[in-house]
Design a protein that fits this description.
alpha+beta; five-stranded antiparallel beta sheet; 32% helix; eight-stranded antiparallel beta sheet; globular; single chain; 17 strands
Length: 316
């Protein structure tokens, strides 16, 4: 199966195209967005040179499932998933922050903590913690949404002081973030997983706050297996996890952390197949469903174009 790393569609009513690290987003007038979840993979804010087959399908289908599972908390942008790799939804005015919420001291938070920092995004982290330990309460550590380059940590007070988000809206974003994280935590627990940390993006449409983009996917979230978590923590062992962290660890072990002058290690067919398998593993664990690979058609892009065009025509 070939990986889809580039798209160049011209859908009915298309007015703009934005290419992100992983997603190609097509604007359809002022009302709709077509989000193609490609098979590109990024780490350390760098898009790696080769794609991962079925990764886009995994991310798109997990996100759709969790968006549907949180509609009682707040509305979201999704209208339909006309193709395994595509979501069509409402166009919103995005808030220029990502709401990162952490239930455990892992990843970026641990790296900062290990370096001696006890405050992250204006939030105090308790002394005496160890890697992967659960926080007394989940902490929210927002980042700016950079058009280019690295997102940056920022505090709630800085967001409000700089006028990025109003205080009223920001406090509502925090409340939604905690509620969605709680829902994701409960769903993960039923599947024998721990939702460690994640990020959410929000926008506004007609004055209403809307949940956007993907949620609870392995690109936006970190999961541990619950079985054996306490034993591994007590022994100071690495947790068995389902997230993109294993890609970062592979890169770091091969001398790459996205810094100038560093080279991405060779992505052999074995490495690529292994990453595909890990993404499918997470899909099956978090959803409880068997992953069904989309048909290996000769022209996946033609399939996508037809499916999306039919969907857009039905919205007229």
């Amino acid at each position: 199966m070939k990986a889809i790393v580039k798209t160049d569609f011209n859908f009915p009513g298309q007015t703009a195209k934005y290419v992100g690290k992983v997603r190609d987003v097509y604007s359809i007038g002022d009302d709709y967005l077509v989000m193609v979840v490609s098979d590109r993979i990024s780490a350390f804010d760098v898009v790696l040179p080769k794609g991962i087959p079925f990764k886009g399908q995994v991310l798109n289908q997990i996100a759709a499932k969790f968006l549907d599972a949180t509609t009682d908390i707040l509305p979201n942008w999704k209208i339909a998933t006309p193709d395994p790799m595509v979501t069509v939804g409402h166009k919103c005015e995005p808030f220029l922050v990502e709401m990162v919420i952490r239930g455990y001291l892992s990843g970026h938070a641990w790296r900062e903590y290990k370096a001696g920092k006890r405050t992250l995004c204006g939030v105090t982290m308790p002394d005496g913690m160890v890697e992967n330990q659960k926080f007394p309460e989940p902490i929210i550590t927002p980042t700016t949404k950079a058009a280019e380059g690295h997102d940056e940590d920022i505090s709630k007070e800085d967001i409000i002081a700089r006028g990025i988000v109003s205080r009223e809206d920001y406090e509502q974003l925090e409340a939604y973030t905690r509620a969605i994280f709680q829902r994701g935590t409960e769903i993960a627990a039923k599947m024998g997983l721990i939702l460690v940390d994640t990020k959410y993006e929000f926008g506004k449409k007609n004055g209403q706050i809307i949940l956007m983009d993907e949620i609870h996917t392995p690109d936006s979230s970190r999961y541990f297996y619950a079985d054996g978590y306490e034993e591994r923590l007590a022994k100071n062992e690495k947790q068995k996890q389902l997230s993109k962290e294993f890609v970062r660890e592979w890169l770091m072990a091969n001398g790459f952390q996205g810094q100038d002058g560093q080279q991405v290690p060779e992505m052999t067919p074995e490495i690529i197949d292994g990453i595909t398998e890990r993404y499918i593993e997470l899909y099956e664990h978090i959803t409880g469903d068997k992953f069904v690979k989309a048909a290996e058609e000769d022209d996946i892009l033609a399939r996508m174009e037809k499916n999306v065009t039919d969907c857009l025509n039905s919205l007229k």
